[in-house]
Design brief:
InterPro entries: Thioredoxin-like_sf. By secondary structure, the chain is of the alpha+beta class. It is built from nine helices and five strands, in the order ββααβααααααββα.
Length: about 220
């Protein structure tokens, strides 16, 4: 699926693809649909970001042949899932170059946003914690919170259910996942086809074997 320019921070591109005569340059696309409060998503992301990405960067034969896209997969049966994904969208809007780094620390801290750890705080209190987490990777805490905060006053038109400054972008991301029929997290799509063989438990070696076979 295409990636809108405003969501470009979700893409990891390691090198410019090379073109053959008369053929436009193209790369393989690995899309990972992950939920920030899903333990299996965290496991897959950790291996991918901290082991596989460095592996790709070190391999000249692979760097120009693949791009990785992180697709946000909100799981609404965990109410906090929406909140943490909103925080990632806020980082995507404000500091797209920090998006993957923020995703990394958010996955590491995901238990802080599990049901038991958010049930007794207000929505805006959770946003404040998420803004502080964003600050840990160098994103402006105040500006992130401004994007996330829900007002306790009616809008000028009397509206009482207007969301925040990332709501519209989150709607687009959710719509994109629905259009390709993704339901569970994690889900991995390689070159437009769901790769059911890829597991959250895959090791660096299994990923290396997969890439070696599919990027040849």
């Amino acid at each position: 699926m295409a990636l809108a320019p405003k969501f470009a921070g979700q893409r990891l591109l390691f090198a410019q693809p090379t073109a053959e005569a008369g053929v436009a340059p193209a790369v393989h696309t690995l899309e990972v649909y992950l939920d920030y409060v899903c333990p299996f998503s965290a496991k897959l992301f950790n291996t991918l970001y901290n082991s596989v990405v460095p592996l790709i960067k070190e391999n000249p034969a692979w760097k120009s042949k693949i791009q990785i896209i992180l697709r946000q997969q909100v799981q609404p049966w965990h109410p906090s899932s929406t909140l943490v994904h909103e925080a990632a969208v806020a980082v995507l809007q404000l500091a797209p170059a920090k998006y993957w780094e923020f995703s990394n620390v958010l996955f590491k801290a995901q238990a802080d946003y599990f049901d038991v750890n958010v049930v007794n705080e207000t929505r805006n209190q959770t946003y404040k914690r998420l803004a502080k987490l964003a600050a840990s990777v160098g994103v402006d805490e105040t500006k992130i919170y401004e994007l996330l905060e829900i007002s306790d006053k009616a809008a000028d038109d009397g509206g009482l259910n207007n969301g925040n400054k990332v709501t519209n972008d989150l709607k687009v991301l959710i719509k994109m996942a629905r259009l390709v029929g993704v339901h569970v997290s994690p889900t991995v799509i390689f070159d437009g086809v769901v790769a059911n063989d890829i597991s959250s438990g895959w090791t660096r070696e299994q990923w290396s074997e997969f890439l070696g076979k599919n990027l040849a």
